[in-house]
Amino acid sequence: MVSVVIPLAHSILDGHIFPILDSLVHFSTLEIIVIHNLDREQQGSLISYFDKSSQEVERATIKVEQLVTNSRAARINRGIDLASHNLILIHHPRSIVEKGGIEYLIEHQSDLQWGGFTHRFDHHHLLLDFTSWYSNRVRAKRGIIYLDHSIFAPTSWLKQVGPLPPVDIFEDTILSAKLRVIASPIILPYYSTTSAIRFLQRGVIRQIATNLLLKVAFHLKISSRRINMIYEQKVKLNSKY
Questions:
Q1: Rounded Cα–Cα distance for residues 92 and 152 (Å)
Q2: How many CB atoms lie within 10 A of CB 11?
Q3: Which class is domain 2-200?
Q4: What is the sign of the dihedral through the CA atoms of 116, 118, 123 and 126?
Q5: Which residue from 4, 91, 165, 241 lies 20 to 30 Å from 147 (Cα-Cα)?
Q6: Where are the domains positioned within the chain?
């Protein structure tokens, strides 16, 4: 069996979480773990969804827990703590992994190393297509897998490398650095299709320029909170300030 950890941000009003859950809940061999930072009304919408899905004859095992924090790393850590199976998929909260990819994880759960799925955006733009190509073909070969690839790894490896620091951003870069000490990552030929909402709201060129600036700031060891405040400005998809 496979445990799927979804570190859900403060808002579900953008609607991305429900198509993700729709793509997962009918796999009876999955354990879905949602670690959220929702207010009472938003949490009620999530619980209502699971109550409705429970009418199915077979469905995934569901675990839902609130963790009041702006740190997605902390939500990931808690999800890993709750996982009870030998492979964990850390599912990006605005990406959908195609069905064949989930089936592949289930079938090969006992012999997979760590890695992610082939990335693409749900909106076509020359620069977005290049960003995905670079992430799949260049960054991954350097041993860095971003969370929007939907990262998977053996549970024992995630326990071995220890918990992530409670950073507000670039937790996936830190996790990659920990895991590539054990092995180089793989990219599976199934898509993880990510919402381009951040690029569409801010403008593609502006968001790409911001991302590059923030990567420099990360390597200069500037506070993750300060970096994330810039990243989340006017969008507030992962955190709210």
A1: 11
A2: 18
A3: alpha beta
A4: positive
A5: 241
A6: 2-200
